[in-house]
Design brief:
By secondary structure, this protein is mainly α. The protein has a domain at 52-105. It contains 3 helices and 2 strands, in the order H-H-E-E-H. The protein has helices at 7-16, 39-68, 81-102; strands at residues 73-74, 77-78. Strands 1-2 form a two-stranded antiparallel sheet. Helix 2 runs antiparallel to helix 3 (81-102). It is elongated and about 60 Å long.
Length: 105
């Protein structure tokens, strides 16, 4: 007589596969060496590009707030304009670094 795996065991087996490391990782051999390029590098470039564009968008929104004197109220507190000036410097720098990093070859 053939014993079928219980539904709980089948569920555990199917849930554990998405969490297993990829690229032939063998725990007995220790951590895999980081790759020198290829897929990981493209992924890092894409991440840097997206992060740089998001920070650029935030910086532009702060510039627009200063230019049009938009008032921002958070939980009854009126946010001063100098907060946007500081945010412009920080987010513009982060956008610059992210976009610069995404352009590296």
């Amino acid at each position: 007589m053939k014993v079928l795996p219980s539904s709980a065991a089948a569920r555990v087996r199917s849930l554990s596969t998405p969490f297993l490391p990829r690229r032939g990782y063998n725990p007995a051999q220790g951590s895999p060496q980081p790759s020198a390029g290829g897929e990981d590098f493209k992924s890092q470039k894409t991440f840097s590009l997206v992060a740089g564009l998001i920070f650029l968008l935030v910086a532009v929104m702060h510039v627009l707030r200063l230019a049009f004197k938009w008032e921002v109220v958070l939980n009854g507190w009126s946010v001063p304009m100098w907060v946007s000036a500081v945010a412009i410097v920080i987010t513009a720098y982060l956008a610059f670094e992210g976009l610069k990093l995404s352009r590296r070859s």
